[in-house]
Inverse folding.
């Protein structure tokens, strides 16, 4: 079954007809030519397809496109608005990746995570669940980023890359 | 001896990655992402039995689905040229040799349709019970023969070395020894699991085949693919500029590319095919499981008198693969009496392949665990015990090492890790509910140079250089490091050098593997640069001519010095672990590695490789484990939710340091390999630390909490 | 994935009517588990009825001091809600210990309760599974058992329920509100999920067409301190081998009130009523905690591949109780 939907991706409006089975990830990659989000597992188990949906980080592989009619989506390609996003610059400076396949997802996830922290959301390692302010130490960053796997295992560079931006 | 200090300028600088901006924005083009006109999608059929034969294929329901273009099986597949590598003989018979093997494919207009239709194909089988369990007491163990490069290379093990080695009389030495260790260690199947699944995007045009895939070596990929398809290599082009991780699994496995090429020929459209994560557990290799018995004997002086390392490892009946698990015991420590053996258990399992530090990753877990046990038995500090047993020369071949600074690594690593504050008694340190322990192990990997490399350098009239070589960057930083090497070899700033890699249309290159990449490609580039500089001087007064000038250096051979020197990277790794006494949860608070990897080309990317290897080593030690179901023959935990690789939260302090001592013989840059050495020894350092923390010796990886909870 | 029709209802009653009418329909909320299972063809609905905008996505105060959580509230919003964090920390901790930030942003409270087991044989359509294909057999009984149940399992099924949130809700005496074809009803959380018995294909007591509309939390218990402790192989982004939700109130050295639920050990969130009974009124000591854990786990029937879960569950219960006791001092 096909349905027509509208998506706003990295600031550009798109109208397209999709199979109801098509995920946001496949709609972006196969239909709209935006291959910034990656397919690493297609089951919500790796984080490579992380997108910002209305400013919140989600996984494109588990989101059916038809269920997100009119969605406002940002990918890592869209984070770079004319010039690189501070997280992107920091990732390069810290060499916070090797193969680069999980990287756009890591960066989008980090952008969403920083916003969550600014809003005072706790994490599983937060010492006081009732505290209003979040102190993003390395342990907090690592826990909050754990939905983004990196097989090259650049973790020990990714956390400082994010911390530098978080503490700016 | 090469002049390794002549022109250092870019080499040694922590340059940012050349492809960094593309990677952080997600605009680097990986194989599946090439824009194509009117592509079609392939979804494979996999056998749902482990052993037997296919008795019927009914594709009628699939063919009736709107948008389905073809249903392939052995009944209608094109005949392939018989390959050296039997894994590549895709859809050539009705035989099923392992569960999950390719038995067909559906090609359709959309990804969704192809996948759905694949599930509608009905396949009937005659099935036999599978035999998939590796045990030491099997009666069908055999000694590997001629396994290198699947029978095309010499030697008995995959790396070309003999299956067995003997010096002196191990049994007598063991019997006579005052102190002995006799222990058996086992390692499970591990899957490489690069983040980017294996992919082939195939286009036929005018009898020419273009395969965009994710490859560790496009020259070898072209040879494998053209060979099995019966095409002249010149009519096949393999393109792979960016590789989303590989760790060995993108060297040999290419059955998916063969399947896609067959389909593209039938439907006469560009075919896109990428494996699912689950399919990767049956189709693109893995590190085979091993059972390793190690026996050590030592004298009262704490010097080893005998080392025996007997390896049993799993292989597939479909294709013999014999990994060099015990070769580390041939070179790490001195002892007059020594023996290594390798035996294979042929099983109805998917075909194994190279995985980061093949051989040493498993072998050094066993050897370095046994060393720890022996140091304790001798009452010696494990750092001092290792230093005391370091060999002067390679203990079997008698060749000197081209460079070996292992003692410095151990001493300097121990200093940085605060080893002198360690109380050697197990269970001597407790912090709240955590038992804390530290452990050490050594790392090593050969540093070979491969034959079959060529590099072309062209200087344009504008004085800019283009360097062309079919090398691969799987995240290793090849692009950047080779640019630095070329700049120094040419004595120009890096900004004047453009590097082109990852395309079989470029001059031939050996694979990115076995820590041989920079050594092999860098030497070819260095040679081409020398020749270009000489010709510029001799013919053009050192000035670029208006028409430009191009020089190609072909290096058909490997490193001639390899006949006179044993070449290895080394390292010492220190682990601090914390174990929850109630639950047995193991957390690695700190990993510190001190490495001897020759001259480091780019400290930034080198560090990433080393910490990446060490972290993978931790993942190997604590989490990873592919579970074979003996009834069905499949890997049960075949996805990222169940096959755990280390996550952010598992990683705390990971430090990689190196001595930066150039090797005089490996290559003109003085570099040694560093792609593998980081993962070698990590698991043993962690296992030794677990023993120190708890008093429990875990001889079976991974070290999961069920082995510690009580 | 089987082709399906996508529909969005305007009202709960319309959604329920559609689902009852269609022979093979399913509700879609966040989709984080359903889409996953549809891709594997473990679930093959012909119609998806999107209910994400249908039920409430708000958390509201109840007159008695409790909270009502709309079924469409995401895991993130629930975990971050200050009222939840301060009054029911065990619930916030449970949510935050599950899945990942991205998944919690999509997944809903109703969907979380109805997620299916992560048993690898259930998720693999090429292996027998009574839950997926009734009567085909249980592959896990003689297969890979690390994640399987030790309590309340049957010869037909040894799977575990994967939710962390549900374990905390079980300890908190939460009540699930459900809209159905006939009427609304309220189901105590501990009675929502079933034990497998001979019909493991049924995860819950919900009847066909019933839709979870919300979860109600009773007022928090006076001086109780609560905590969620999850034990797993990887430090994050992994399902529980064993988890424990505990609320403990101690007065004059004795246990005045205690609530314990276990995760990762059964086909449902396991309320440890036996342990609670042993503890109520008992001295708040390690010995009492050990006795209570032992009493609860005397019913455990582990498989060869998960026997470690018995000492693990015991130790986790005892150490979590001890931590809460320590804090109460």
């Amino acid at each position: 079954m096909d349905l027509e939907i509208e998506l706003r991706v990295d600031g550009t409006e798109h109208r397209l007809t999709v199979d109801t089975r098509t995920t946001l990830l496949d709609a972006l990659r196969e239909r709209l030519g935006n291959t910034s989000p990656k397919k690493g597992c297609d089951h919500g188990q790796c984080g490579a397809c992380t997108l910002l949906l209305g400013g919140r980080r989600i996984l494109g592989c588990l989101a059916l496109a038809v269920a997100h009619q009119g969605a406002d989506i940002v990918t890592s390609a869209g984070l770079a608005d004319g010039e690189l996003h501070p997280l992107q610059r920091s990732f390069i400076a810290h060499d916070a990746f090797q193969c680069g396949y999980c990287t756009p997802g890591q960066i989008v996830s980090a952008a969403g995570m920083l916003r969550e922290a600014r809003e005072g959301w706790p994490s599983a390692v937060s010492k006081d669940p009732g505290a209003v302010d979040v102190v993003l130490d390395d342990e907090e960053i690592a826990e909050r980023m754990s939905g983004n796997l990196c097989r090259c295992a650049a973790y020990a560079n990714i956390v400082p890359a994010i911390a530098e931006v978080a503490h700016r | 001896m090469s002049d390794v200090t002549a022109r250092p300028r870019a080499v040694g600088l922590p340059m940012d990655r050349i492809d960094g901006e593309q990677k952080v924005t997600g605009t680097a083009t990986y194989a599946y992402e090439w824009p194509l006109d009117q592509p079609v999608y392939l979804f494979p059929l996999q056998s749902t039995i482990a052993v037997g034969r296919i008795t019927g294929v009914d594709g009628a329901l699939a063919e009736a689905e709107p948008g389905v273009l073809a249903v392939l099986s052995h009944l209608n597949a094109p005949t392939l040229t018989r390959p050296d590598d039997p894994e590549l003989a895709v859809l050539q018979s009705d035989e099923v040799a392992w569960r999950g093997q390719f038995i067909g494919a559906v090609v359709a207009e959309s990804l969704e349709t192809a996948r759905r239709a694949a599930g509608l194909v009905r396949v009937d089988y005659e099935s036999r019970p599978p035999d998939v369990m590796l045990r030491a007491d099997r009666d069908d163990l055999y000694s590997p023969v001629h396994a290198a490069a699947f029978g095309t290379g010499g030697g008995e093990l995959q790396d070309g070395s003999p299956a067995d080695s003997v010096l002196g009389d191990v049994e007598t030495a063991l019997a006579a020894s005052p102190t002995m260790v006799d222990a058996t260690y086992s390692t499970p199947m591990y899957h490489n699991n690069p983040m980017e699944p294996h992919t082939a995007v195939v286009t036929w045009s005018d009898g020419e085949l273009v395969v965009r895939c994710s490859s560790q070596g496009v020259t070898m990929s072209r040879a494998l693919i053209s060979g099995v398809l019966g095409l002249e290599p010149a009519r096949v082009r393999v393109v792979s500029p960016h590789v989303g991780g590989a760790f060995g699994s993108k060297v040999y496995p290419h059955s998916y590319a063969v399947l896609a090429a067959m389909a593209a020929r039938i439907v006469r459209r560009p075919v896109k095919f990428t494996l699912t994560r689950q399919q990767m557990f049956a189709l693109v290799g893995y590190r085979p499981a091993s059972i390793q018995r190690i026996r050590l004997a030592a004298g009262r002086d704490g010097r080893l008198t005998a080392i025996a390392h007997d390896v049993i490892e799993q292989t597939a009946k479909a294709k013999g693969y014999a990994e060099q698990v015990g070769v580390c015991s041939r070179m790490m420590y001195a002892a007059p009496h020594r023996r290594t053996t390798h035996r294979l258990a042929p099983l109805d399992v998917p075909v194994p392949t190279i995985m980061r530090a093949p051989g040493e990753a498993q072998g050094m877990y066993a050897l370095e665990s046994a060393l720890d046990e022996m140091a304790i038995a001798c009452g010696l500090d494990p750092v001092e015990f290792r230093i005391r047993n370091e060999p002067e020369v390679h203990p079997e071949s008698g060749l000197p090492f081209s460079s070996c600074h292992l003692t410095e690594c151990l001493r300097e690593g121990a200093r940085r890790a605060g080893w002198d504050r360690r109380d050697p008694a197990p269970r001597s340190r407790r912090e709240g509910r955590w038992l804390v322990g530290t452990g050490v192990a050594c790392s090593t990997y050969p540093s070979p140079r491969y034959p079959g490399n060529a590099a072309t350098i062209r200087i344009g009239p504008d004085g800019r250089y283009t360097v062309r070589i079919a090398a691969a960057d799987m995240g290793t930083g090849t692009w950047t490091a080779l640019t630095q090497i070329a700049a120094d070899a040419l004595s120009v700033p890096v900004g004047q050098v453009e590097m082109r890699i990852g395309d079989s249309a470029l001059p031939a290159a050996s694979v990115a593997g076995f820590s041989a990449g920079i050594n092999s490609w860098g030497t070819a580039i260095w040679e081409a640069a020398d020749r270009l500089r000489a010709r510029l001087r001799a013919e053009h007064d050192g000035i670029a001519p208006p028409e430009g000038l191009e020089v190609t250096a072909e290096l058909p051979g490997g490193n001639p010095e390899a006949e006179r020197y044993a070449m290895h990277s080394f390292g010492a790794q220190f682990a601090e672990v914390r174990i929850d006494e109630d639950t047995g949860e193991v957390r690695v608070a700190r990993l510190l590695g001190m490495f001897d990897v020759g001259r480091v080309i780019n400290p930034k990317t080198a560090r990433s490789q080393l910490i990446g290897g060490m972290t993978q080593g931790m993942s190997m030690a604590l989490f990873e484990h592919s579970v074979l179901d003996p009834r069905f023959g499949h890997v049960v935990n075949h996805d990222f939710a169940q096959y755990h690789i280390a996550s952010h939260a598992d990683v705390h302090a990971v430090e990689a340091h190196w001595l930066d001592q150039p090797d005089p013989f490996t290559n003109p840059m003085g570099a040694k390999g560093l792609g593998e050495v980081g993962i070698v020894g990590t698991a043993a350092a962690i296992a030794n630390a677990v023993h120190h923390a708890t008093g429990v010796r875990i001889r079976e990886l991974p070290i999961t909490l069920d082995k510690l909870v009580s | 994935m089987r082709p399906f029709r996508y529909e969005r209802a305007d009202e709960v009653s319309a959604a329920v009517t559609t689902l009852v009418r269609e022979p093979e329909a399913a509700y879609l909320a966040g989709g984080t588990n359903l889409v996953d299972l549809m891709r594997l063809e473990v679930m093959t609905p012909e119609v998806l009825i999107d209910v994400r905008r249908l039920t409430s996505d708000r958390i509201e105060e109840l007159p008695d001091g409790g909270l009502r959580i709309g079924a469409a509230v995401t895991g993130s919003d629930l975990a971050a809600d200050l009222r939840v964090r301060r009054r029911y920390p065990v619930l916030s901790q449970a949510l935050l210990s599950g899945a990942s930030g991205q998944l919690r942003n999509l997944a809903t409270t109703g969907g979380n309760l109805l997620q299916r087991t992560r048993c690898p044989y259930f998720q693999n359509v090429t292996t027998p599974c009574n839950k997926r294909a009734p009567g085909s057999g249980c592959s896990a009984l003689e297969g890979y058992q690390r994640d399987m149940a030790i309590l309340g399992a049957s010869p037909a099924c040894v799977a575990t329920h994967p939710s962390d949130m549900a374990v905390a809700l079980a300890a908190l005496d939460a009540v699930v509100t459900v809209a159905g074809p006939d009427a609304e009803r309220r189901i105590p959380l501990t009675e929502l999920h079933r034990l497998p018995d001979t019909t493991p294909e049924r995860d819950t007591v919900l009847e066909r067409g019933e839709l979870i509309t919300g979860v109600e939390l009773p007022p928090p218990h006076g001086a109780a301190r609560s905590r969620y402790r999850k034990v797993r192989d990887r430090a994050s982004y992994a399902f529980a081998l064993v988890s424990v939700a505990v609320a403990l109130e101690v007065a004059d050295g004795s246990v005045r009130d205690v609530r314990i639920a276990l995760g990762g050990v059964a086909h449902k969130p396991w309320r440890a009523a036996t342990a609670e009974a042993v503890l109520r009124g008992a001295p708040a000591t390690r010995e009492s905690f050990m006795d209570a854990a032992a009493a609860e786990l005397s019913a455990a029937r582990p498989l060869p591949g998960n026997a470690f879960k018995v000492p693990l569950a015991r130790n986790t219960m005892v150490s979590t109780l001890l931590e809460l006791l320590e804090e109460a001092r």
Chain C has twelve helices and twelve strands.
